[in-house]
Amino acid sequence: MAEIKITVADDGPYVIEGGVNVVDQDGDSYEERDVIALCRCGQSDSKPFCDGSHRTAEFSSSPRASES
Ligand code: FES
Question: How far is the CA of 57 from the centre of ligand 1 (A)?
Answer without folding.
Answer: 9
